[in-house]
Write a structure and sequence with these properties.
This protein is of the alpha/beta class. Helix content is about 45%, strand content about 15%. The protein is globular.
Length: about 450
């Protein structure tokens, strides 16, 4: 019961206070057994990832509209429905009983009968659920995969039906944690051995060197391999952005939007901790975590600066061999890890290209002649990616896109690439490498 109670608390925090599920989960998992922590996480992510579909079915069996129910009854129903429809190891009777108890615990005892009736009916009819209307392709996919219709329409335009459905399917999965090995401290073999001794399943990424895919980590910070700086958490896509930059030995690097620090760490390790990396973020409190991470990894080449990426600093004019711009974005490439992002509306994204362009414009002034400007985002929308870099290059003839090579099946890239989670075993990510000629 504790797993479900904590799951309801997390969903309530997300809905009422606007918390992010991953952050809220981190706070609520403390004290739970590994089994309960796993079930709690599965329920939270499962409910958010399948909310539209769950609501579609629940609305067929509930006499009241879900959005008219007093909080948190709608989420109590969703928790029960998710277990009934998606978790084979949870008996239907247990899903119903614990949901009724959740309603009572939440002070909604008078609604316990409603919860009981709706979920029991769902149990009886789960093998003959009502069909999702399919005359409108975008609406069908939106309900089936619980993504906003505006996003489904964009995906259909970009990828076609087959590609869009593959992307939506992967976005509803839970990927293993990806860790990069700190090869300045240990070999990949030593890192794997330390993880396995702690009961963590560690598999090598199929084609990205020194990248491990982890399962069964529990609280990662407690692992000896983490505490001793053998590894840091970073998706393969972010690591590929650093590889695309082809870092110069002992070079000067500016990481404009650095927090939480993964690219700065990857750059420092790639240069053998012999270069100089200036890691910036608008929020000074985020830099403290970056500094702690660098210290844990034993990296001395990184120093931090609180800075707004849109405001010019004369002291940095043409001062860096490489400038990394991992711009703030819609985050639509990381829906697997932050399912809450799907609740964003199309209107929420209009201002982002303006901010991204302003940061890129300013950062370009810090690149020395012959140096590299690398722009990246963790989204898949052209208006935040290709359109931003094309507009920049249109007004900056001194810069041009430059070919680079990435490992594995990606290979040679003609200046820019969008990585897709259903194609590249990585987050959705955009990478553009530009060189300043003069």
């Amino acid at each position: 019961m504790s797993a479900r109670r904590e799951a309801l608390s997390v969903l309530t925090a997300c809905r009422v206070r606007g918390a992010w599920a991953d952050a809220a989960l981190s706070a609520h998992l403390k004290g739970l057994s590994p089994a309960d922590a796993g079930l709690c996480s599965r329920i939270v992510y499962g409910v958010i990832q399948n909310e539209t579909l769950l609501d579609f079915y629940l609305s067929r069996f509930c006499s009241q509209k879900l959005d008219h129910l007093q909080p948190p009854l709608a989420d109590v129903l969703r928790i029960g429905a998710y277990q009934i429809l998606f978790l084979d190891r949870v008996p239907d009777s247990a899903a119903v009983h614990t949901s009724v108890e959740l309603a009572r615990d939440a002070g909604r005892g008078q609604a316990a009968g409603l919860v009981n009736a709706v979920l029991r009916r769902l149990c009886r009819e789960k093998d003959a659920l009502p069909a999702i209307p399919d005359r409108d392709e975008a609406r069908y996919l939106s309900i089936r995969y619980s993504h906003p219709k505006w996003l489904v329409k964009r995906l259909l335009a970009l990828l076609g039906r087959e590609g869009a459905e593959a992307f939506l399917t992967v976005s509803n999965s839970q990927p293993p944690a990806a860790a990069q090995v700190n090869t300045l401290r240990v070999s990949t073999e030593e890192a794997v051995r330390a993880l396995e001794e702690a009961g963590v399943r560690a598999e090598r990424h199929p084609w990205l060197p020194d990248c491990l895919l982890l399962q069964g980590t529990g609280e990662l910070e407690r692992l000896r391999a983490f505490q001793e700086g053998m590894l840091y958490i970073q998706d393969p896509a972010a690591r590929l952005a650093v590889l695309a930059a082809e870092l110069p030995p002992k070079g000067r690097v500016l990481d404009v939007c650095a927090a939480p620090g993964g690219k700065s760490f990857a750059a420092a390790i790639a240069m053998g901790d012999r270069g100089e990396i200036v890691s910036c973020d608008l929020h000074a409190n985020k830099l403290k975590r970056l500094e702690e991470g660098a210290a844990r990894l034993g990296l001395s080449s990184i120093r931090t600066e609180a800075a707004d990426g849109r405001i010019f600093r004369e002291a940095w004019r043409e001062a860096f061999d490489l400038v990394l711009v991992d711009a703030p974005c819609s985050g639509l490439g990381i829906l697997r890890k932050k399912p809450d992002i799907r609740r964003k509306k199309a209107d929420d994204l209009f201002a982002l290209p303006v901010i991204q362009s302003a940061i890129l414009e300013n950062a370009a002034a810090y690149v020395r002649p012959g140096g590299t400007l690398l722009y990246s985002t963790c989204t898949i929308l052209p208006e935040e990616n290709e359109d931003v870099t094309a507009a920049f290059l249109g007004t900056h003839p001194e810069f041009s896109r430059e070919t680079f090579t990435l490992p594995g099946p990606i290979g040679r890239v003609e200046g820019q690439i969008t990585l897709w989670p259903h194609l590249h075993e990585a987050d959705g990510f955009y990478i553009c490498r530009m060189t300043r000629r003069t």
